[in-house]
Design a protein that fits this description.
Number of strands: 8
Distance between the termini: 28 Å
Mean pLDDT: 90
Helix content: 55-70%
Strand content: 5-15%
Number of helices: 14
Radius of gyration: 20 Å
C-alpha cells in the first residue's frame, strides 16, 4: 500500500542541524543517519553488478530492466536525470525502513513529527524494526492507536545525489515489473516537488506520477505477461482502496459528529467488523484467495486507515491538473512546484478548484 516517505532527507537534515545546535532527539537522528549511510555504503553501481560473474542471472536481468525503466523515466516522464536508482544494494532484510503511524482512538488525524528544514510528517521511520515497535508500544500506552509497516524504499529528495543517489534495493527488485516501475517513478517524483508540512500533497503527487508513468511504461515496453500481472495487482489495489475509502469516510463522519464517545466506540466497532467482512468477501470472490492484504485487515485501525489518505486523497486532483497542462510532464511539474511553494491552505484551495472545474 504505502511506499515510503522521506526518511533519508529527515536523517541528513535533522542530524546536520542537531549536531550543530544540540537536540533532544539526537538519538533518533543518529540512527536515521547511520542507517542511511550504511544503506549507501552497501550500494554498488549497476555496471559493477552486471560485470560480476557471481551475480545471479535473475538479478542481472532485473537490474538491466530497471536501467531501461530509469532511462524511460528521464526521456518520457521528464523525471530527474541523476544517480538515483543506478546503483544496487542487498540489505539482507525485507524492508528498507519501518514506519510508525499513530492516531487517536476517535479520530483519523495522524500524529505528526516535525523535523528541521523538512517540516512535519505523519510518520516516524526506523531502520530497525525493534526500534519502531518500541515506539509504537510507547504510543499505545499513551492511548494512541498505532501501526508499524515495512516499506521497500524511501526518498531523500535528491540529497543523496552527492553520494551516488538513492539506490535500488533487494526489498523491491523482485516485485512484478509494473510494481518495480511504479516504485521507481514514485520515489523520483519526490525529487521534483516537495511541500513542507503536507504529507498528503507530497504522497498524492508521487502516486499520481507513478500511475501515469506505469501506464505509459507498460503500453510502450511491457509484454503481455507484465501487463496482465499488473492488471491483477491493480484491480486488487483498487478494490482495497474502494473498501477502505468507504470505511474511512464513515468513520470520519462519525468522529466529527456530536455523538457521545460511547456511541462512537460502538459504531466504530461495527464499521471495523464490516470492513473485515468486506475483505473476506473480496478474498473469497474476485481475489481468488489472495492473502496479501490479510495482515493489514487483521491489524486495521485508525492509524492504518489514516495513512492511506495521505497516498490517495489528492490523486484525482493531480491527474486532472496533468490533463489541464496538456498531459505535458514538464508543465505539470512546474505547476506542482509552484503549488508546493504556497501556504498549505492556499495550495489545497487551488487543488480543490481544479477538481471543481471538471
Amino acid at each position: 500500500m504505502a511506499i515510503g516517505g522521506v526518511l533519508g532527507a529527515v536523517a541528513v537534515a535533522g542530524a546536520a542541524v542537531c549536531l550543530g545546535s544540540g537536540c533532544s532527539t539526537l538519538g533518533y537522528y543518529g540512527q536515521s543517519l547511520g542507517g542511511h549511510l550504511h544503506l549507501l555504503s552497501a550500494a554498488r553501481p549497476v555496471p559493477e553488478w552486471l560485470g560480476d560473474p557471481s551475480t545471479p542471472q535473475p538479478l542481472r536481468e532485473r537490474l538491466e530492466l530497471t536501467q531501461r525503466m530509469r532511462e524511460f523515466a528521464v526521456a518520457e516522464l521528464k523525471l530527474p536525470d541523476n544517480g538515483s536508482y543506478r546503483r544496487y544494494a542487498d540489505l539482507k532484510r525485507p524492508a528498507a525502513v519501518w514506519n510508525v503511524v499513530a492516531a487517536p482512538e476517535l479520530s483519523l488525524q495522524l500524529k505528526t513529527w516535525c523535523f528541521p528544514v523538512l517540516g512535519c510528517v505523519g510518520y516516524r521511520g526506523y531502520f530497525d524494526r525493534g526500534d519502531a515497535q518500541q515506539l509504537a508500544e510507547q504510543l499505545q500506552a499513551d492511548g494512541w492507536e498505532t501501526t508499524v509497516y515495512g516499506v521497500p524504499a524511501y526518498s531523500t529528495l535528491g540529497w543523496s545525489n552527492w553520494f551516488g543517489g538513492d539506490p535500488l534495493l533487494n526489498t523491491f527488485i523482485e516485485l512484478p515489473e509494473g510494481e518495480v516501475a511504479r516504485l521507481i517513478f514514485h520515489e523520483l517524483a519526490h525529487q521534483v516537488a516537495y511541500a513542507s508540512d503536507d504529507t498528503m500533497f507530497n504522497e498524492s503527487f508521487a502516486t499520481a506520477v507513478e500511475r501515469l508513468g506505469v501506464e505509459r511504461w507498460l503500453a510502450a515496453h511491457g509484454g503481455a505477461a507484465a501487463r496482465q500481472a499488473y492488471a491483477r495487482y491493480d484491480a486488487r489495489r483498487n478494490d482495497f482502496r474502494a473498501l477502505t475509502s468507504r470505511t474511512r469516510a464513515a468513520l470520519d463522519a462519525l468522529y466529527r459528529s456530536d455523538a457521545p464517545p460511547q456511541h462512537q466506540r460502538a459504531r466504530k466497532a461495527e464499521l471495523m467488523r464490516e470492513l473485515r467482512e468486506g475483505h473476506a468477501r473480496l478474498k473469497a470472490g474476485p481475489w481468488n484467495g489472495y492473502a496479501g492484504y490479510d495482515r493489514w485487515f487483521e491489524h486495521a485501525n485508525n492509524a492504518a486507515l489514516g495513512v492511506l489518505a495521505a497516498y490517495h486523497e489528492l490523486v484525482p486532483a493531480f491527474e486532472q491538473l496533468f490533463d489541464r497542462q496538456g498531459r505535458d510532464f514538464g508543465r505539470f511539474y512546474a505547476t506542482v512546484a509552484q503549488l508546493a511553494a504556497l501556504p498549505k491552505e492556499e495550495r489545497r484551495a487551488k487543488l480543490a478548484a481544479v477538481s471543481a472545474d471538471q
